[in-house]
């Protein structure tokens, strides 16, 4: 049924699916198997978290670690009094966004923005063409909101939010390590993407000055703290996953050689979606054959293993593969044409949200979803099964997501003093029950200290955070505090 038969042949050869006479029996059998497969116990969460803490420490100590722990060269927390007008450009996994941010001080700001949808083609074209597109969008925005760009005398400060693993040696430099989130643009990995954007802006004569390049998670950390000083960790749970927090420079041995006082604090972009990658056995007890299939058929096998198990880009695909398994076993959609669900990634994670949140007794939303998008008729017993599968996938995602937060909280002692975690991304904000499941897992891992860790919807990191960091960087430069080797 699948274009590549590996997933179905795997299930058949493992003799997992002996066919009972009644469909109800085999669905019940499959539900039990999936519950065993996707349930992550409290003990397993604790074990993963301890490995996570060690991975964070390894990344701070040495370069080229699985969890790279990139210094972001954002020093200390904002005062909350930062003011001024700043542009921000956010190159995300789905959209390109250009913002004009008015920082008003006292933790307040206003944002005016334009979004530009990124096509599949743009995610794979030459890097120069991608950044040229970014420059064109910025120029269009400037012309719309400032009048003709040729009439602007003084360049406008621009903060660039670039949400991909990069190595920085200063705030306006960022060398791309590798693409994630389905991007694979040639001639960019290993290059300074801030400089590539500068070249494109210059080619299109855009009157801006690029002051900083940051990860969206770093921006979320700073924006959340700008609004509320008890926010100490930031996480993204969307197309991908990541976290940032503020670390003591004395705890970052790999920064030795930089002219940075040890009593300084610096934001760390963890890039912890890579946790458990490159043959590490740490996630093996909770990985399923569906996770293995997704990884082996991805454009970056053996990379971003943690992200592939919990992020919004992959949850719908896990669900689809389970359905295809049952189609191949002659259990689902008998006599119906299933070609529409055979296409990889056709099942958006938003569909799982709809399935889980269907309020009707007959699960009419689920029925309509399969009928409208896939031309498939379903029975109530099948729809109940689909809802349970969606719950299992969503629950595992939230529980594993708690491991990364717990690792940072335990490392920094936030389980004792408490803190807020600013969380952004569609998985956190839109997936039903995600936050509650996350909080339950924090208590499973940390104990009573987990109740002191509170997640909440983050402020606009890629917009407001970029602007606050631009303001902080401007003030720091004016004071003569520039980090260098």
Explain this structure.
The chain has a domain at 76-228 and 459-472: Nucleotidyltransferase, domain 5 (2-Layer Sandwich), CATH 3.30.420.40. Helices cover 44% and strands 18% of the residues. The protein has 16 helices and 13 strands. The protein has helices at 6-13, 23-38, 42-61, 127-146, 193-203, 216-227, 289-296, 305-310, 312-328, 349-357, 364-374, 380-412, 414-417, 426-430, 434-446, 461-478; strands spanning 70-75, 83-91, 95-105, 108-117, 156-162, 166-167, 175-176, 208-214, 231-237, 241-248, 265-269, 419-424, 453-457. A six-stranded mixed sheet has the order 1-11-10-9-12-13, with helices on both faces. Helix 6 packs across helix 16 (461-478) and helix 10 (349-357) packs across helix 12. It is globular. The protein starts with 5 loop residues before the first helix and ends in a 7-residue tail after the last helix. 49% of the residues are buried.
Question: What is the name of the CATH class of the domain at 76-228 and 459-472?
Answer: Alpha Beta
Structure summary, number of beta strands: 13
Query: How much helicity do the residues have?
Result: 40-55%
Order of helices and strands: HHHEEEEHEEEHEHEEEHHHHHHHEHHEH
The order of strands across the largest sheet is 1-11-10-9-12-13
Query: What class would the helix/strand composition place it in?
Result: alpha/beta
> How much is the radius of gyration in Å?
23 Å
Work out the oligomeric state of the chains in this entry: single chain
Remind me, CATH topology of the domain at 76-228 and 459-472? Nucleotidyltransferase, domain 5
Mean pLDDT: 91
| Global morphology | globular
From the N-terminal CA to the C-terminal CA, the straight-line distance is 57 Å
Count of helical regions: 16
Strand fraction equals: 15-25%
| CATH architecture title of the domain at 76-228 and 459-472 | 2-Layer Sandwich
């Amino acid at each position: 049924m699948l274009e590549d038969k590996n997933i179905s042949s795997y299930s058949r050869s493992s003799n997992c699916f002996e066919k009972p006479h009644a469909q109800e029996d085999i669905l019940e059998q499959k539900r039990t198997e999936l519950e065993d497969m996707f349930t992550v116990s409290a003990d397993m969460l604790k074990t993963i978290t301890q490995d996570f803490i060690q991975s964070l420490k390894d990344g701070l100590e040495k370069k080229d670690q699985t969890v790279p722990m990139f210094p972001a060269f954002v020093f200390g927390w904002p005062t909350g009094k930062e003011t001024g007008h700043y542009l921000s450009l956010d190159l995300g996994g789905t959209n390109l966004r250009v913002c004009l941010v008015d920082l008003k001080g006292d933790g307040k700001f206003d944002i005016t923005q334009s979004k530009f949808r990124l096509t599949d083609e743009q995610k794979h074209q030459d890097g120069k063409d991608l950044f040229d597109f970014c420059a064109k969008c910025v120029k269009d925005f400037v012309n719309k909101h400032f009048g003709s760009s040729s009439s602007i005398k003084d360049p406008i400060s621009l903060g660039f939010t670039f949400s991909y693993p990069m190595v920085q040696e200063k705030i306006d430099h960022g060398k791309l390590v590798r693409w994630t989130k389905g991007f694979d643009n040639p001639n960019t990995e290993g290059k300074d993407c801030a400089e590539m954007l500068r070249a494109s802006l210059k080619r299109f004569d855009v009157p801006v000055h690029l002051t900083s390049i940051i990860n969206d998670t770093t921006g979320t950390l700073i924006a959340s703290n700008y609004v509320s000083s008890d926010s100490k960790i930031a996480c993204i749970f969307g197309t991908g996953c990541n976290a940032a927090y503020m670390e003591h420079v004395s705890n970052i041995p790999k920064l030795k050689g930089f002219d940075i006082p040890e009593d300084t604090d610096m934001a760390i972009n963890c890039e912890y979606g890579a946790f458990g990658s490159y043959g590490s056995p740490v996630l093996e007890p909770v990985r399923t054959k569906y996770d293995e299939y997704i990884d082996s058929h991805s454009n970056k096998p053996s990379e971003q293993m943690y992200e592939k198990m919990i992020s919004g880009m992959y949850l719908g695909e896990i669900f689809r593969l389970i359905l295809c398994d049952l189609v191949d076993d002659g259990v689902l959609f008998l006599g119906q044409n299933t070609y529409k669900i055979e296409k990889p990634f056709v099942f958006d994670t938003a569909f799982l949200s709809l399935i889980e949140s269907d309020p009707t007794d007959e699960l009419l939303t689920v029925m309509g979803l399969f009928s409208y998008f896939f031309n498939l008729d379903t029975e109530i017993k099948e729809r109940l099964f689909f809802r349970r599968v969606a719950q299992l996938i969503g629950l595992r995602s939230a529980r594993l997501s708690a491991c990364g937060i717990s690792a940072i909280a335990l490392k920094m002692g936030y389980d004792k003093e408490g803190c807020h975690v600013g969380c952004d991304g569609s998985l956190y904000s839109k997936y039903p029950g995600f936050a509650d499941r996350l909080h339950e897992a924090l208590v499973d891992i940390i104990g009573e200290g987990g109740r002191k860790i509170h997640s909440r919807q983050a402020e606009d990191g890629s917009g407001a955070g970029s602007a606050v960091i631009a303001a902080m960087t401007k003030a720091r430069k004016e004071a003569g505090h520039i980090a260098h080797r």
